[in-house]
Amino acid sequence: MIAFYVNPTAGSGRAQKAWHTLEPYLRQKHFPYTVIIDDNPRQALFALRKAYAAGPKALFVIGGDGTLSSAVNAVLGASSDKSAIRSMLSPLPFGLIPAGSGNDMARSFHIPRNPLAAFHLQLTALQHGRVAYLDLALHVPPSTETAEHHASLHLPSFPTLKHIDIQSKTLESKIDPASFSRSPLRSPRVALGFIGIGFDGEVVHGLEGVHDDALKGGLDDKIVAGIDHHKGFSLAKKSLRQLSYTAGVIKTLIHFQPFDLSIRIDGREMDLKDVWMAALLNVTHFGGGMHINPLGRVDDGLWDLIVVHRIGKGDFLRTFPRVFSGSHLRHPAVLHRRGHVFTFTVKHRLRELYAQQDGDLISLPQTVEILPRCLPFLLPE
């Protein structure tokens, strides 16, 4: 049996459309499967955890970057023990049918956008035992964080669970909301693709409440076109959601204040002034197609740190389009390092600072440790 988790809000409904494309094929080929679709994120993720524990041959996530990250963290629960995390994830591989807005993880993994093509390639990998093991990053928020500080991020309690399987039987049960942490930011979490401090975190914070799934979609739609000094902003107007992200970027550019940051990488410390953003990445792309980490590999036991610092707003605007080609790494204001353990300490800031992890707001990270070759994943050959 293969399990599917569909995020109905991902990609402004594209995940639902992808499932409607894939489901008739599964029925025609008599694939045994189970599917979880629910508008309530916490409820759906609880069902996903149970489905994964039941031991399917694989779990396919249909959605975007944030959906995949949420699914993996749902399987792990609140565990921060490295051995336990590896043990919980080791038996069953994940697959991804990209149906978000930016699909940067799929882009980094070379998974096609077409649902049937994506499924076929990963099913072939499963049938031939070609399972890759991806590096994860374990982030434990400060224990002093209070739930009240981020009360606006709390999700509502659950209605009735609906779990639909191939025979179209419906299993209903009541779920106790107390079984989940009231504040997901207090629980240890793993990142699959990226952790960002500064500019991108402030963009995510500014988008709170714009859409219910805004914090689940990663940085997918934040910047949809380049900027140059002749034409100014070139905004792609593909959807209201994209416009909301773009508006968040413009607002952040106007009001953002750089900060000073101390970073320790595998015991070696460096102090950086006037930092715009510090991004810790495993994937090669984020932000809906920005080639921010062209040297990244997902299974080498290392994550890449990209820091933008000591740059004025005018130079930032002129240089920004280079991130789509990956040539930004040659700019003197861009710092690139790699490592296993990263510790972040903010030294000076003029205003409140925000951070995000796979598109979710988090408290400012302290120590992030890479868990090498931890997540079994079906990658196209």
Automatic annotation (TrEMBL):
GO biological process terms held by the UniProt record: phospholipid biosynthetic process
Cofactor: Mg(2+)
Pfam family, one: DAGK_cat
Domain of life: Bacteria
Kinase is among the record's keywords: yes
Gene Ontology terms, MF aspect: ATP binding; kinase activity
Protein name (Swiss-Prot/TrEMBL): Transcription regulator [contains diacylglycerol kinase catalytic domain]
Provenance organism: Candidatus Carbonibacillus altaicus
High-level lineage: Bacteria, Bacillati, Bacillota, Bacilli, Bacillales
